[in-house]
Amino acid sequence: MSVTAVVGLQWGDEAKGKFVDLLSTEADLVARFNGGDNAGHTVVNPMGTFKVRLTPNGFSNPHAACVIGPGVVVNLATLVNEVKSIESSGIDVRSRLWVSPRCNVIMPYHPLVEKIYEQAKSASRTGTTGRGIGPVFADKVSYNGIRLFDLADERVFAEKLRVQLSIKNPFLQAFGMPALSFEAVFDEIRNLYLQIQECVREPYGLVQDMLARGGQILLEGAQGALLDNIWGTYPYCTASVTLAGGASAGLGIAPQCITQIVGIAKAYTTRVGAGPMPTELEDEVGKTLQVEGQEYGTVTGRPRRCGWFDAELVRFTVQLNGVTRLALTKLDVLDTLPQIKICIGYRLPESGERLRRYWEIDATRLEQCEPVYIEMEGWQQSTRAARRFTDLPPQAQAYVHKIEELVGAPVGYVSVGAERNATIQIAAD
Prior knowledge:
- The chain is α/β, with parallel strands linked by helices.
- The chain has 3 domains: about 1-100 and about 200-260, Adenylosuccinate Synthetase, subunit A, domain 1 (Adenylosuccinate Synthetase, Chain A, domain 1, 3-Layer(aba) Sandwich); about 110-195, Adenylosuccinate Synthetase, subunit A, domain 2 (Orthogonal Bundle); about 265-425, Adenylosuccinate Synthetase, Chain A, domain 3 (Alpha-Beta Complex).
- It has 13 helices and 16 strands.
- It has helices at about 15-25, 75-90, 110-120, 135-140, 150, 155-175, 180-195, 205-210, 245-250, 285-290, 310-320, 365-370, 395-405; strands at about 1-10, 30, 40-45, 50, 65-70, 95-100, 215-225, 260-265, 270, 305, 310, 325-330, 340-345, 370-375, 410-415, 425.
- The strands form 4 sheets. It has a 9-stranded mixed sheet, with helices on both faces.
- α3 (about 110-120) packs across α4 (about 135-140) and α6 (about 155-175) packs across α7.
- It is globular.
């Protein structure tokens, strides 16, 4: 049995989709266990280029089952469109897709409620994707959620929807928004459900059978560890558990079954939306990273904030997730830089010489921190054609080794391009 969890170690956008796609070629089952359609993954493989938000990135392997676990919240319109798009490329995904009926459904009122929250917070807004993720998780934990189970029975769905609209419509109207029509919402969601109904089936038994017969299972996390609702930069975070441990509840798999944890980190740091980012660069170097890395959100299209690699943060998330191997992505984006910095900790103005750790402070204090850097020599030549570690310039090899040393985990993969084959695999010692 081999169960591999793939998780992001920064603020998302680390290129998890590429590595799930790469590892899925040998998988029997690929499963999403958290998040919703606020997380976009771009996959470039021999079948084409795909931008997906919900469908597990094992869809290109015709032998792999694709599972959306109960820890995921589902936007039915997104899922229906993705399945149609994938099928238009000649890939049969519908027969292999399992969507847990325990998944909560993003309803039309959830993005509206989120919009009100963001407008009310004004300058203190979180900078969400606007997909309604926070409100749907809030409904879930306050026993107001509507699940795919409920959509299977028109009477049950109608009863629950009426209750929710009796709560949500006065709230929307209080902030100047029109009330939602019961008939319009009921028909919209019901029609979308019928288009995907055959895929709504509990995957728990499938997962347990796969474990029992020693199958290859790949667990796909969404967002990044620093967006976790507990350990991330709260309140500038997401609503779900983004850690490897979240797979246990989010899919229904015992913790001891997970045998490998691959942590994905960019060779620099990016962040979308508001919140502290100690190594952010607002100079020409930051602009170079943004342009060379094509740093624009898959879901929102917003430009990502860019900065130097933060080893303090990644050391923390390596420990938090129990990472067994690192995948370092977008090394090629650094190719033109003469000097490269790595953050090894922070100083607060009043703290003197003592380095502060991420886990010691909250988001407000992190915003006030000054990063402490070490500096390394750049390589100033292209790494895009490298397919073996020894193909990399000596300075690039030194940079990778320094990251290994600082974060406390071995680098098993180095990505030098978006394509599946633009990957260097490093054999374990």
